[in-house]
Design a protein that fits this description.
2 domains; 11 helices; globular; nine-stranded mixed beta sheet; Alpha-Beta Plaits; 13 strands; alpha/beta; single chain
Amino acid sequence: MLGICPAKTEGTIFAIKRYAIHDGPDLRTTVFFKGCPLSCWWCHNPEGLRHDIGMVTVAEKCVGCGECIDVCPQKALKISSSGPRRKLDLCKACGLCAETCPALAHEATGYTVQADAVLQTIEKDSAFYNGSQGGVTFSGGEPLSQPGFLLEMLRLCGKRGLHRVVDTSGFAENSLLLHVAKETDLFLFDLKHMDSALHEQYTGVPNERILENLRSLARQGHAVQVRMPLIPGINDDEKNLRATGEFVSGLPGIRHIDVLPYHGIAKAKYTKLGMEYKGADIPKSAPEDVQRAVRTLEGYGLKVRIGG
């Protein structure tokens, strides 16, 4: 296995969130990996979709000083009447514009890090984990899209006795997932749609591999918290809710499911990144629809938590 997925001490991330309370049990430090094989219409972390690091310009912040123009070695920037403009075909994402800009009008969509440096940030919060199940969560993007770096981080954290959570879509080779499971204390595993064709329509990939991976984790007794992002008009219909309840209730050792209502607060991120937001017209989850989903899933003997 190690030959298939050697450890890597360097990876790309887009954020480290300290004192997180929704990314696993108790208080946590969440590390967000870049890169994801899915393209969910409702993704709330679009900056994590691509593996590569890019630069973003927020024109409203520009004060027109021109310092970024002077420092850019690729001459990829220019000032127009509506603010700075970036020639994406020239930009190499070197980050000099972000380092130079006094108004913080330029931002990187991620950065390269060493595992030891990430560990140092995580360990700053270790005092808050004592006496609880708090610890570190690896999210994204999709952490399994950087398996070598993920394994290195899991091993380093394991040596220090930190509780380790992997937040995943489950779309990965089964052998890789089970290898990662040996270094993981808990999986947060998303179930987005039970119909494979609709799953592919709304996420870009079919769901057979995802469902089989969840079965494998459950059968081998790994700790899994199943989560269902509840997306109005996409997966909150009775047919899909019943299919989800039947599937999850049939998994050995799993009797809980988290329902995550859709909120749509990521729209501003897409505008900032210059990306199309396919979920722009999806309405916020209505409380009565959330409760309906809870009742349906509870009908299969599952304990349901909202928001989780």
